[in-house]
């Protein structure tokens, strides 16, 4: 029975600072097609959660519908999970986060799930700056329903049947920056070295952290002429920088040449170090990020790495001044202030 994951592990596996081996962050054996980019992203998520010393039961993973949205089954099986309706993950995530801010929220979606049926939900979760990480596993097609073009398929891109897409594509990273997302990154499923630090930085960001990951569908969109195939992406990738996530450090000891390395401090004392920056791009400047993405697009390149970040971001909880404690832990006396207080509120509204 090949669907049963072998339990054997090397007895001397490394443990993280809370004493867990990486096994604690794994999930069920994947049933996706062999070689699917989504599986590489799941591996990146497992690695990032292990390295960040996350308590699995303090994380909630949420998704919509699609091959991409199936992936939460394949990572973090000791975490909370909710596989919602097609395109509706953002509203479920919003409800959960508003009720309990003590968990880390991790959303997974597809380009069909977010850019077509779920577009209405996506744009609002971005502009509300919900404190969550949101990954789109972007393969330019609807993998689960046998490879129809999605709204992120590039104009002129050919699908497996040889049909050329005549429509302008939706660029989710540009859209997220435009809508005010406070952390926007782009990566490739085949570049774990870049993806893992990006996921770690996103999970540490206090606000909406969006990562658009190009993730080839080997079964329906890996043909010649597709702009989301492994070959095409490898040939056209252009990194803004290399990235390293440095957890809480009082002093950064790395020496760097001014202009070639940039350090972005995060709210909790950790930092992101970016090397080899493109000369005319500033990750803290929204306009500069938008121009860099558009320039790359004009040249037919896929710009990867951290595109934009606002380290001063205020998330939805801060904006709405919500309860510090999870709602299910509030006692009746806190939830119901008594008739006198209610009379005062009513009098104030007359
Ligand atoms: C309301 C609703 N409409 C349509 C579908 C059919 N459907 C299932 S998955 C999917 C698209 C999946 O594409 P994407 O989100 O890009 O994920 P992928 O499978 O490519 O990872 C569609 C249209 C559905 N499940 N529910
Ligand atoms: S159909 Fe495509 S997206 Fe779905 S599992 Fe297979 S390769 Fe991955």
Structural class: alpha/beta
Bound compounds, each kind once, are: thiamine diphosphate, iron/sulfur cluster
**Low-confidence spans:** 249-259
Please tell me how large the radius of gyration is.
Answer: 21 Å
pLDDT averaged over residues: 90
Oligomeric status: single chain
Terminal CA distance reads: 69 Å
What is shown here, in short?
This protein has 350 residues and is of the alpha/beta class. It has 12 helices and 13 strands.
How are the SSEs ordered, and which strands pair?
Elements: H1 37-51, E1 59-63, H2 67-70, E2 80-83, H3 89-99, E3 104-110, H4 111-115, H5 119-127, E4 132-138, E5 141-142, E6 148-149, H6 172-178, E7 183-188, H7 192-204, E8 208-214, H8 230-236, E9 237-239, E10 242-246, E11 261-265, E12 271-275, H9 286-298, E13 302-309, H10 316-320, H11 332-335, H12 339-349
Parallel strand pairs: 1-2, 1-3, 3-4, 4-8, 7-8, 9-13
Antiparallel strand pairs: 5-6, 7-13, 10-12, 11-12
Helix pairs in contact: 1-7, 3-5, 6-9
The structure holds thiamine diphosphate (TPP) and iron/sulfur cluster (SF4).
């Amino acid at each position: 029975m090949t669907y049963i994951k072998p339990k054997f592990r090397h007895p001397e596996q490394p443990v993280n600072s809370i004493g867990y081996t990486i096994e604690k962050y794994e999930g069920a054996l994947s049933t996706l097609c062999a070689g699917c980019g989504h599986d590489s992203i799941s591996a990146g998520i497992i690695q990032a959660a292990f390295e960040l010393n996350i308590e699995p039961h303090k994380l909630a993973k949420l998704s919509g519908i699609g091959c991409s949205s199936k992936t939460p089954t394949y990572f973090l099986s000791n975490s909370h999970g909710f596989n919602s309706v097609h395109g509706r993950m953002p509203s479920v995530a919003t409800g959960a986060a508003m009720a309990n801010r003590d968990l880390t929220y991790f959303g997974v979606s597809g380009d069909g799930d977010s850019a077509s049926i779920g577009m209405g939900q996506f744009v609002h979760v971005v502009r509300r700056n919900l404190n969550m990480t949101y990954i789109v596993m972007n393969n330019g097609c609807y993998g689960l329903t046998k490879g129809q073009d999605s709204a992120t398929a590039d104009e002129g891109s050919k699908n497996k049947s040889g049909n050329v897409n005549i429509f302008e594509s939706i660029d989710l990273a540009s859209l997220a920056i435009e809508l005010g997302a406070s952390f926007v990154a782009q990566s490739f499923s085949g570049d774990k070295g870049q993806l893992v630090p990006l996921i770690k930085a996103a999970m540490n960001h206090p606000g909406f952290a969006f990562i658009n990951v190009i993730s080839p569908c080997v079964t329906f969109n890996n043909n010649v002429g597709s702009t989301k195939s492994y070959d095409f992406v490898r040939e056209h990738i252009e990194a803004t920088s290399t990235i390293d996530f440095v957890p809480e450090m009082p002093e950064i000891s790395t020496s760097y040449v001014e202009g070639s390395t940039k350090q972005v401090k995060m709210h909790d004392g950790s930092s992101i170090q970016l090397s080899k920056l493109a000369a005319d791009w500033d990750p803290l400047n929204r306009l500069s990020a938008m121009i860099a993405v558009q320039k790359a697009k004009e040249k037919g390149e896929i710009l990867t790495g951290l595109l934009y970040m606002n380290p001063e971001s205020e998330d939805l909880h801060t904006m709405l001044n919500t309860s510090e404690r999870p709602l299910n832990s509030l006692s009746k006396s806190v939830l119901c202030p008594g008739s006198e207080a209610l009379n005062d509120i009513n009098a104030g509204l007359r």
